[in-house]
């Protein structure tokens, strides 16, 4: 079905329309503090299948269920780990998704048949208004074409999904910039499945310990973002390590002299190596780099044939998530 996709500010009328669309099995885009989400009724097989169809998303890539801050988690999951409660108290509402043992009350398509369920309570005021208005668990990945750069404005969603969804709730630019941290809380201690704005170190400070999971060959994905190329702009990309700044500079001038439209994505300390007009500056702090990454990748695809990206120097903390997204954006395939 083709829609005349509308962007509307969040208000009584748009929230009523959003609820009606969701109960009819359609998808609605909504803002969060990280990226815009593509939401549908998590209880409905057909509605969840519609998410995969709208995005062109692989069927083995699980989704996250979003609920408002007053929602009773016991309706969705078994919550039997004391450290999970501590994590919720410390970080929720916020950019942390927790993976629990599922009670099976939502569609099995949400978790791709796994017996776990990823649940998130976003802190964005508009997301909370939306989730309270609809009153149901909402399954939602990022509101973009599969593998493309995640959307951090309503306009980004419109560019990717016009005609495929009826409504985009406009909550302004997202402040966080990269997707939530996903943390498995089914075991004796937490395990980070996807890095994000809540770092492993932050989780350890509350839970006492925390592991990082690495997907093994042939294993099903336990979290979004663990498989496949993601976050990629529609231009050629090449990634350089921090110590390869000189090589990036040589390649930049070689491409430019050959008439190629080329831009460089880098942190502030590396920007002086290139002409100012050719630099897309990520910023100088981890928070700035997380917030700016996706909007700059979107800008690159409108201005350049080739994007040369130089990894920031920093490691650990929020930078783990930033580097994860940057590397996936520039990966082959």
Automatic annotation (TrEMBL):
GO terms for molecular function: ATP binding; double-stranded RNA binding; L-threonylcarbamoyladenylate synthase; tRNA binding. Gene3D superfamilies: DHBP synthase (3.90.870.10), Threonylcarbamoyl-AMP synthase, C-terminal domain (3.40.50.11030). The keyword Metal-binding does not apply. It catalyses: L-threonine + hydrogencarbonate + ATP = L-threonylcarbamoyladenylate + diphosphate + H2O. Its main location: cytoplasm. GO terms for cellular component: cytoplasm. GO terms for biological process: regulation of translational fidelity; tRNA processing. ATP binds at residues 57, 61, 116, 150, 194, 231. Keywords: ATP-binding, Cytoplasm, Nucleotide-binding, Nucleotidyltransferase, Transferase, tRNA processing. Belongs to the SUA5 family. This is Threonylcarbamoyl-AMP synthase.
